[in-house]
Design a protein that fits this description.
Elements (H helix, E strand, L loop, with lengths): L14 H4 L17 H21 L11 H21 L3 H21 L15 E2 L2 E2 L9 H23 L10 H35 L4 H33 L2
């Protein structure tokens, strides 16, 4: 079921491995609790992104319009420049790779949950959690993924403040309200993405149960739309936070 990730202990039955503290730190949980499905999906998404870049990069040209791949890549670049420059001003180039990477990573992972994965549950080799077949969902329904992305955003916009203003940026955090922002901003980034994508997954599951032939097509199209919006919102808010820290005086 959605929200029940596939643990490493499903595949590895060695208690010495599964019951050992993760990275030797008991506060991080057990090694056997690692979410194998999340790790696999994020790795696949990274391979898709890096593989596509490796294929398109040698074919880029400045002498003519290029092929369809170059046109799409240029459109994406122009879109990300508009997004980051509008929020950060002239320093946008230093953060453009990160924001572009966040957007495409979130987008691909949002999309990966939208597919005919429900049909795989009928096969006998498909994993089961208890008496229910495991339900493959987008990696962005896992709080570990969204919290990790939010942590990257937090570290980046904190670091950008010190990069832009030096040690005097410490004075900005003499105000206790600013310390609250360090909790609220990453929390809302992580929870918004996870909850919205999870709600889409639940909506699709319900539609597959009630009207399995017609309604899910429209629901899946809606999921793709929401996936784009949520990737844009995550990248936009990260850009806004960085822009605010860079502009503080």
């Amino acid at each position: 079921m959605l929200g029940k990730n596939l643990p490493l202990s499903y595949f590895v039955h060695d208690s010495q491995i599964c019951d050992a503290p993760f990275l030797g730190i008991s506060a991080l949980g057990k090694t056997g609790d690692l979410h194998v499905d999340t790790i696999a999906l994020t790795l696949v998404s990274m391979v898709l992104i890096l593989g596509t870049a490796a294929i398109l990069t040698p074919r880029l040209t400045a002498e003519n319009a290029g092929d369809l791949g170059q046109s799409l890549l240029e459109m994406y670049y122009d879109f990300m420049v508009g997004l980051t420059k509008g929020q950060m001003g002239d320093v946008y180039k230093k953060f453009l790779p990160l924001i572009a990477g966040i957007f495409i990573f979130v987008l691909i992972n949002n999309f990966m949950g939208v597919g005919p994965w429900k049909a795989l549950e009928t096969f006998p080799w498909w994993p089961k959690l208890g008496h229910e077949p495991f339900e493959l969902a987008s990696a962005t329904t896992d709080f570990n993924v969204t919290a990790g992305l939010a942590t990257v955003a937090l570290i980046t916009y904190l670091g950008s403040g010190f990069w832009a203003h030096g040690l005097k940026y410490f004075k900005h955090y003499l105000n206790p309200i600013e310390w609250l922002d360090l909790v609220v901003r990453p929390s809302t980034l992580a929870l918004r993405l996870m909850l919205v994508i999870s709600a889409d997954e639940i909506l699709r599951s319900v539609s597959l149960t009630l009207v399995p032939w017609f309604l899910p097509t429209g629901v899946m199209a809606f999921e793709l739309f929401i996936g784009v919006i949520q990737a844009f919102v995550f990248a936009l808010l990260t850009s806004i936070y960085i822009g605010l820290t860079v502009s503080h005086h």
